[in-house]
Amino acid sequence: MAMTPSGKPFEILTFPAGAWSFAIRIWLATTLALFVSFWLQLEAPSTAALTVSILAEPTRGQALEKAGYRLLATIVGVVASIVITGLFSQTRDLILAAFALWMGSSIFVAKLLDGNRAYAAVLSGYTVGLIATQQLDNPHQVFEVAISRGSSIAIGILATAVVNDLMFAPAQYPRFVAQLAALHRRVRAYAMSVSSREPCNTSTFLDLVRDIMVLGPSMASIGFDANGGPARNAAGQSAVVALAGELQAARILKISMSGAAVDIETAVAPQSRPGEIQGRRETHTAAWATKEFLRRDGGFRADFLALRSAKWPSQARRAPMFRSYRTAIESGVRAALWIAIASALFIWTGWPATSVSLSFVLLIAALGATTPSPRAFTAMALLGVPTAAFLTGILEFFILDGTDAFPLLAIAMAPFLIGATLCMTSQNLLWSSLGRVNLSFITIFLAPSNPQSYNPLTFLITGVFIFVAAAILLVAQILIPPVSDAKRRKRLVSSARDDLGRLRSESGQSPEEATFREMARLDQFISAGGTQDSGSLADVLSCFDQSAVMRLCDAKLLQLADGPMALLADQARAALIAQDAKALRTLAGAIRREVSSENPAASDIATILLTASNLIDGDRQVQPIPEIIR
């Protein structure tokens, strides 16, 4: 990235040079996709250009990963279109019901996934809308339309890949490594703040949770970089999971040292070792927590080194996501009802272009399902339609004004596509959303073809179709609102309570992997407005802390399974499941009495059992966190 002498990124008109490079790549890829489509005389050249807009990602790895999922989801959608049309082509009501059920099923799957996998799920849903729905009156043409759409998508993918390579699009790997290293420094700083005797800073912890979980969707795209590969992909995933475990260890460390006069700065310094912690008075709990943090810090460093060396990690870790099936089912059912309401309204009013408008309803509903607020996305689409129509009208009827020369088309499109892409890179959520919506809608409104059609009536009808589709969907979402944030938070807290005490050693998950899953749930809670609900936040954090300590207890007790203290270990595991704090303290004393040179780990096990009993008893009060409710 170009830098100024002051060390800041070089900017042009307040946008960094990297954003301009990204925007120019999108324009060039769109131009190349249209040129090849015109040369091959494809029936849907605008689909190739729209594919470039959809694959507009700043790094090469992200674009290629999304392209792969787009191609796969298109195949699934094409097959579904052929099957649905073949089964219900003679019954319009049943085929519309089948479309609604298919879209609901796609959104159900999307709610169980994240990143580009969720995008692929909804794409397989709205592909049916773009292929089969628009051919309600000509079902025999579904296969031909599917082949044409697939060819155009392939051209758009190839154009994006070629331009990214020729213009040296940045790889995802260096950015991922830099983000991971910065997060690691912040986690260590969070742990070292214990020496300040300040209360456990929950807002800092929640910020770190969110930033670590943001890296989750980026892990898979590393393998699509030229300097990536399966080894780096596995190492990156293990490093992120290890960092989540280290953050949890840092939180336990802060909890265990709350109020203690302990200086652990030397303990977490890079050059120190567990046995070199000096100048402190520590309890057994603080000593164990410090050692556990240092162990996990070492695990992250090993995975991070494997990532940078392109080697397989010594212990490959999975990144399990938390999935709320109840929320996913309800979201899918509500989406199906939205489509059903829109279909019934179109049929009742006798709208002359039901198939076209309904396809846009499916498109907007599907894309909105991948956002935190589907209704807000629909409102943004409703706002973006007149904006895109106005800009495209200027482009088509004032700048191009009947020209049929391709170079003029490419040059005329440049400021509109580049401007929309620059808006996408804005830190302002409104401008970023408008930029992405307009980048796609301008292509849809313009519908480049060879020769280009300059029909004001067609242009007006297209705008009305899209606007009416967004308006009807918004009305349906008001009548049957998406799953509310309050309900999502309530379910997440309930699931955290239900999972409390369920030891995960039987599932084959390591403590770090189980912690990552718990952090995924915590991240979903925050996304649902959890920071504004201090009572529920304290509750879910309490469950989070207890679960982490209980998993560590379970992992440690497994070390005693085959020894002379096997019976005590079994009793301790039973007490953990029952959350019997009194029994845990009694068993901790019994285990501590068995400490010897042959069982040096027994002391740590007794200590962590006492920590678990304190958390279960509520001896540690979870912060009400007034500072983050601002």
From TrEMBL:
The chain crosses the membrane at residues 20-40, 69-88, 94-113, 353-370, 377-399, 405-422, 459-480. It holds the Pfam family FUSC. Keywords: Membrane, Transmembrane, Transmembrane helix. This is FUSC family protein.
